[in-house]
Specification:
With 206 residues, this protein is of the alpha/beta class. It contains five helices and ten strands. Strands 1-2-3-5-7-10 form a six-stranded mixed β-sheet, covered by helices on one side. A four-stranded mixed β-sheet has the order 4-6-8-9. Helix 1 runs parallel beside helix 2 and helix 3 crosses helix 4. The two termini are 24 Å apart.
Length: 206
């Protein structure tokens, strides 16, 4: 696979077919832009069609895996490196709803639709969009320093990107309501006890 030039992340393909995707906006704790999400969907489409790719591993640079959305980016350029610009679409409540369905949810739908294994190597904060993305992956391995949860209710917003549905699959309805309404941000070991990750390892070993 051609490494390409993507917004907000870099890729490395190594034998025997492991594609490592590193979110690399550490100055924003890898907060996502619309362009980054659109490029990510493009990458996932390429990976699906590339026989050389067998497993995708996602991780972050710096202190975060993926700490939600970069809200400031919505007012700026919405073009990714691989796709052209579009209107940001967040200027009205209906526009925000449409953007969530067309842009944010599309990322997790693309991950869930892959017929190749996906691994979230959670190296730090996985919040809101990043948390939902990790839940969409097949496997989740967390570093001991990892923290994860949905912070949307802290801003009077409902969980998005399908995160609440994914949480129900792991926790059940009752524990999902408790998790979201209490706005919980849990440690790696708490996430392991809840069944949100498969394994916890040291930061150096991740």
């Amino acid at each position: 696979m051609d490494a390409g030039s993507f917004e907000g992340f870099s890729t490395v393909l190594e034998a025997p077919g492991i594609l490592t995707v590193t979110f690399d906006r550490p100055e924003t704790m890898n907060a996502s832009t619309i362009g980054m999400k659109r490029d990510l969907v493009e990458l996932l489409t390429r990976a699906q069609m590339d026989n050389a790719v067998r497993v995708l591993v996602f991780t972050g640079s710096g202190r975060a895996f993926w700490a939600g959305d970069d809200m400031k980016s919505y007012a700026g350029d919405t073009a990714g490196s691989m796709v052209g610009p579009i209107d940001p679409g967040h200027d009205t409540p209906l526009g925000t709803y449409g953007a969530l369905r067309a842009i944010s949810q599309a990322v997790n739908v693309a991950v869930r639709g892959l017929d190749k294994l996906t691994v979230a190597a959670i190296n730090g904060f996985a919040i809101q969009t990043g948390f939902s993305f990790a839940l969409a992956c097949d496997f989740r391995i967390a570093a001991e320093s990892a923290r994860m949860g949905s912070a949307t209710l802290r801003f009077a917003l409902l969980p998005d990107e399908g995160g609440q549905w994914l949480l129900v699959q792991h926790l059940g309805v009752g524990r999902t309501i408790d998790f979201l309404m209490r706005k919980r941000i849990v440690s790696a070991h708490e996430a392991l006890e809840l069944g949100l990750v498969h394994e916890v390892t040291t930061d150096d070993a991740l």
